[in-house]
Amino acid sequence: MCHHLQGVNRVDNQNTQITPIEEPKGASRSLKGWLGKIRIYGLRDELILPYLLLTILLAVIGTFIVIRLVASDRNERFTNQLYNSSRTAADIIRQQENTNLRNLRFLLSSTTLAEMVENRDVEQLKSLGSILKAYESEFISVVDRNGQEIITIELPPGTNQPIMSLSSQNFRDFDPVVKIFSSAEGKTEKHVGLIRTKTETVLVTSAAVRGAAGDIKGVLLVGTYVNSLLTTIKEQTLVNHVMLLDENYEIISQIIPEISVSSGGEATLAASPELENLLQSLKTQGLDAAGDVKKNLRSYDINQRSFTIYYSEFNIREEVKGWLGLSLSDDYQTSAITTSRLAMVLLFSIGTLAVIIIGYLLAQSIARPILKLRDLSKEVAGGNLNQRINIKRSDEIGELAEAFDQMTQQLRERTEEAARLFELTIQRNKELTQINAKLQSMQLQLIQAEKLAAVGQLTAGIVHDVKNPLAVVKGLSEVLLGNDLTDEERQQLKVIHESAVKANNIVTDLLKFARQSTPEKKFQDLRETVEASLRLTAYLSRKANVEVIKDLPDRAVMMWYDSQQLEQVFINIITNAIQAMPDKGTLRVSMRRIDHTVAISFQDTGIGIPAENLNRIFDPFFTTKPEGQGTGLGLSVSYGIVSNHNGHIQVESKVGEGSTFTVILPIDQSPSPQGVI
Ligand SMILES: Nc1ncnc2c1ncn2[C@@H]1O[C@H](COP(=O)(O)OP(=O)(O)OP(=O)(O)O)[C@@H](O)[C@H]1O
Ligand SMILES: [Mg+2]
Prior knowledge:
Layout: H1 2-18, H2 29-37, H3 43-108, H4 113-118, H5 122-125, H6 130-135, E1 139-144, E2 149-154, E3 163-165, H7 175-181, E4 190-196, E5 201-210, E6 216-225, H8 226-237, E7 241-246, E8 251-255, H9 266-270, H10 273-285, E9 297-302, E10 305-316, E11 320-329, H11 330-381, H12 396-481, H13 487-514, E12 522-525, H14 526-543, E13 546-551, E14 558-561, H15 563-580, E15 585-594, E16 597-604, H16 611-614, H17 634-644, E17 648-654, E18 658-666
Parallel strand pairs: 13-15
Antiparallel strand pairs: 1-2, 1-6, 2-3, 4-5, 5-6, 7-8, 7-11, 9-10, 10-11, 12-14, 15-16, 16-18, 17-18
Bound molecules: adenosine-5'-triphosphate and magnesium ion.
Residues 572, 576-577, 580, 604, 606-607, 609, 617, 622-625, 630-636, 659 line the site of adenosine-5'-triphosphate (ATP).
């Protein structure tokens, strides 16, 4: 019990530990109050919080690193994009040059061309224009033997109708034409070059128009606008800015990015100081002919937009040289980075969330059994010992749960043991009460004996005092009888003498009844004494119509006792029984040996004894019989005799059914007398 209370106290102590410590008063109060708000409220929080912080930290670091990696990867991809674009551009230029060459050959294959050139037949030559529409070239020029333009046919982009011009331009200094005139007889060389017309720059391929004898009649030029070439490049490579520079880093042509320029459009752009700076830097630093990415990459701003440009060598048959610059807006890059950055942040956020959820579930799975343990512990502390946690786990929590179950089990066993001991104590207490009651009854018996002794002494005194005068009466009457007396006188004196003798006998008997003389014990058969008692009372029972049933042992019951005294006891009990059955009845007398005692019981079918009298029947002078019939000494004297034989008398009785008196005597009692009343 004591332990139990201590257990409760301990739990309370734990609870008080959890409650917050009182805040000290002072300046730091507000800060502490604020900190108090982020108190950790339990095991679950303790588990999840560091996990949460760690996860977020890792997520932030991870996102940072990955974004950096992506950014550098993006950078590389961006450069590659430019590099690849330049290769595509080179292909486009080559293809266009091939187309021009093919068209040139096709025109040269006409048998009438030499004649038309020789005759400067403009009208006929105009028909050449039809090829432009169908064969993807934009420029045809026919030059005579003197290097003088005969006709030029153009098909500017976006138009359908060829434009003829007869400006008689002088091509004598134009390189591809010069080379044709200086070529060897009969050779069909082709040359390329750039012609700057009034508005456009044209990339042309030249070839000689020869007569049937192989002599040069003139030169045919077929070409494409550089501008439309660059437009095609820009469209196919998706770059923002295409520029073609000559060997001296001067712009031949460029296709500007689609940016809203305040006014003036291309003009403004061409004159933009940033672009000027760029070209200036190219002139001072130069470019790498091998196309090294690092050397040929430049950055510049136009209208607050950043661009990165890559220059590759523009080279056709070693005749046209220059630089082709392809430029991408950094927006392209940054937007891609932003997109991937967003994607990364989103990915990491989702990942972090998933990790947090998993962490929470994990914390739950750790905290739940511990919380259950706490609740069950409280239950156990409250006295409910029939608790089992029943958590089957192979980890430390499982061990804890098992230890808890074992502890509860032991506690339960101990408590049960305590309860059993308590029961036992109560049982012993009951037994003690019974022993006490027995002691009390023994004390009553002692008192009974005392009473008897007192009566004996009283009676002895009376008898003594009466006996002496009686002796005088008896003696004197004897003396007087010796005298000479009349018959009448003798008769009367004899009556006096006899009465004196009778009275003397009575008081002597009374003395015998009252003052139990020392038992004179002999070793003899108790059955004999019982039989004698029955014989002496046979007359009485016959008179009262009482049937006597004997149930005595076959063999002798030998023991030490005073036969006269016990006979008197048995006669007293039998007489009482017969008196209780005035009309008729049955008296069963039986004798049983039980261990070292012998029990002689007298069972009658008489009137029985009321419960309130049971305690008093052994009292001297207690009688229910009418005056003169009973003295009330019978049972009290019997009680004394049996006590002197170390035995006792038991009584069971039911009113209207009958009574049973049982005399219980020890068999192996000592031959010497014990106690005298
Ligand atoms: N067998 C019995 N059946 C019913 N009552 C009995 C029986 N034996 C004893 N008693 C009751 O016990 C009383 C006391 O008995 P006890 O033998 O001491 O005195 P008594 O029989 O009244 O007088 P005494 O024996 O001196 O002539 C009786 O008066 C009677 O009421
Ligand atoms: Mg009697």
